[in-house]
Amino acid sequence: MTRDDITGAGGAGAQEAVFARRERLRANLAALRERVAAACAAAGRSPEDVHLIAVTKTFPASDVRALAGLGVTDVGENRDQEAAAKAAACADLPLRWHFVGQLQTNKARSVARYADLVHSVDRERLVRALGARARAEGRRVGCLVQVNLDLDSAAGVLGPRGGADPADVLAVADAVAEEEGLLLEGVMAVAPREGDPDAAFARLYAVAERVRDRYAQARTISAGMSGDLEAAVRQGATHLRVGTALLDDRNPNVG
Ligand SMILES: *Cc1c(COP(=O)(O)O)cnc(C)c1O
């Protein structure tokens, strides 16, 4: 049985399941906020400078609604089809929608309709597609240039997680800045699976500074997930993308 089956069924049992899920999310959110506050304190940073994005991929719209009721303002998704449906189901909520997954150019039209900030902009062709679609929608879509922090892929083999080579980031940023429908807000990265996340996020910070030197408004550094958010906070992250620490384990077959 899936969570949708539980919350979609009628009766008192379903009511209880909805209540239990909300209490679970409330407890997870409180624990996560404490964890972020402790990380900020240890790093000598103000918690107000570190924003939380709830990555709700694979979880139902009812969880997004529950999180919004608990004060979450930002949600992230990594697949267009799922994100579009959830954003439509939650259109009445005052949420900022983040697209954090690898993005194919042919999905730009859909994403430009609902995304407020696209974290995974990593090539000029995608920039042009997103820009054209955002203009057609009469929207201004925020963009982060995704940076590939995988040292192995310096040899030319792109890592499985996407992202521009650090040497190409400024060119992608320039392309975003030239697009009327887009707004350059900063950079994003996923730490490599292997190795020290502090070292990886320090490399991201150096790239972020170069982008910010050219575009003063591009101050966002999206880094850090459930497993490495302390390292991200130490290395200057302004936005954390947290899934499992907030929503519990995803179905291992998806997401
Ligand atoms: C799923 C995902 C996250 C959240 O990961 P957790 O380990 O569940 O916190 C963050 N960023 C991206 C790009 C993701 O795809």
Automatic annotation (TrEMBL):
Keywords (alphabetical) are: Coiled coil, Pyridoxal phosphate
Q: Per its record, how is this protein called by name?
A: Pyridoxal phosphate homeostasis protein
Q: Which InterPro entries match?
A: Ala_racemase_N, PLP-binding_barrel, PyrdxlP_homeostasis
Family, as annotated? Belongs to the pyridoxal phosphate-binding protein YggS/PROSC family.
Provide the cofactor list for this protein. pyridoxal 5'-phosphate
Q: Source species, please? A: Streptomonospora mangrovi
Role description:
Pyridoxal 5'-phosphate (PLP)-binding protein, which is involved in PLP homeostasis.
PANTHER family referenced in this protein's UniProt entry, alphabetically: PROLINE SYNTHETASE CO-TRANSCRIBED BACTERIAL HOMOLOG PROTEIN (PTHR10146), PYRIDOXAL PHOSPHATE HOMEOSTASIS PROTEIN (PTHR10146:SF14)
Top-level taxonomic group: Bacteria
Point out residues bearing the modification N6-(pyridoxal phosphate)lysine.
Answer: 57
* UniProt GO molecular function: pyridoxal phosphate binding
